[in-house]
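ok posting inputs for the flavin-adenine dinucleotide job
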Amino acid sequence: MIKYFVPKSLKEATEILSQNDCYILAGGTDLMVQKHRSASLLPTFEKDVLFTNEIKELDYIKVDKEGVHVGSVTKYEKMLKSAQIPDIFRKTIEQIASPGIRNMATMAGNIGNASPAGDTLVPLNVFDAYLVLSSTRGERKVLVSDYIIGVRKTIREKDEIIKEIVIPNLDLEFDYEKVGSRKAESISKVSFLGAYKLEGNIIKDFRVAFGSVSIKVVRDKEVEKKYIGLTKEEFINRKEEIVSDYSKLISPITDHRSTKEYRQKVACNLLSRFIDNIK
Amino acid sequence: MKINFVLNHKPIELDVNPTRRLLDVLREDLHLTGTKEGCGEGECGACTVLVDDKPYNSCLTPVLNVQDKEVLTIEGFREMKEYRIIADAFADMGGSQCGFCTPGMILVSYALLKNNPHPTDEEIRFALSGNICRCTGYQAIVNAVKVASEKGVKL
Ligand SMILES: Cc1cc2nc3c(=O)[nH]c(=O)nc-3n(C[C@H](O)[C@H](O)[C@H](O)COP(=O)(O)OP(=O)(O)OC[C@H]3O[C@@H](n4cnc5c(N)ncnc54)[C@H](O)[C@@H]3O)c2cc1C
Ligand code: FES
Ligand code: FES
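and the output
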């Protein structure tokens, strides 16, 4: 018999998870699609289900010196309306799905689903955002980029739950682009986020991440380091080399949304345009 | 599992599997068939209902997630004075043809106008971006929302 749990607090949730192997169900906009069979039939959950919807204490957006803390049951719509959420996240979220889905879905769900096309994963990587995972054993912090290890694969232990996502402060210039088939309701074919900081004429920070071009978000701190500290002119002059470095890192596939050649080309063009636009 | 919420202004208690889709609870269990199933995957908006005045895709909503909330379907909205204004505007402007998308379109329009009584074309299109219509070509629907806005849905 499948059991259903509706904890009202984080403590209650971790106690349940310490005893039961559960699907964690938040907004359901990924899980309900994956478990759906046909009209009027129950979705097929083969394991127990823990609903996060009633854990009201995890519905928050808080700011402190570490950055912005987003409780795991916070809906996208709330993030969109909050001035505390960095603009670049709001710009990303505004292009996810549709208003109805954004009223239901959570960023923790986007992370938990670990899809190569998860749109928030791109800025979360660029910001070095991390998760706080809770269990009866305690808490641990894990970078979002380390939490996801493959398609639908994460390092979550069975007794753990995402308590919150922490987005560190980051003061950079951003360029985000999502390439899909249409404005709303489209899953990314390629997404790109470039960021930099100029101090005087020096590139003080430089970060790049791509979504949908590999099994997980592509970001490479070694490549970034190569170009930090250059003058703007030097940086721009090495555009071809930068594009070629990233071109080697991405390994897109062909699927029903797009082809690998298209994705490769568009990803490189977005990077090129980002470099051209550095002022 | 016992689940309580307010449905179309009346409190209701159901004994139901909590993962059951709200859409099936409405259509199958409660025979409220105004809410339509198009894609069943969150993409078309035909199944839209309002939950605490916000559009939700009921095909992806486990019924547990509306516990203690207020759910409004097209049947409940028909009893409200704002319904007439929006429904007449859809009829006058040709905003409904086969009608399959219409319950969702009308509820989303109401949710928009309630928050933003005088939306721009762009705001209307943004609000309706999760609702697909295969008949009207959308412009007639945008026009209908504008007419409803001029007539003052907020009253
Ligand atoms: C029509 C449609 C369009 C979409 N468009 C986009 C899009 O443009 N971009 C995009 O990125 N996504 C898109 N999605 C996917 C989806 O909406 C997002 O991934 C969303 O963020 C999932 O959140 P949720 O709360 O609904 O997750 P759920 O479906 O409830 O859960 C998803 C996964 O996360 C896990 N999880 C949830 N909460 C926790 C927690 N607290 N701790 C540990 N694990 C947890 C679950 O166990 C599950 O594996 C779309 C979906 C639909 C149906
Ligand atoms: S039936 Fe729910 S969005 Fe299409
Ligand atoms: S009127 Fe037919 S789908 Fe919109």
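notes: Chain B touches chain A through 34 residues (CB under 8 Å). The radius of gyration of chain B is 15 Å.
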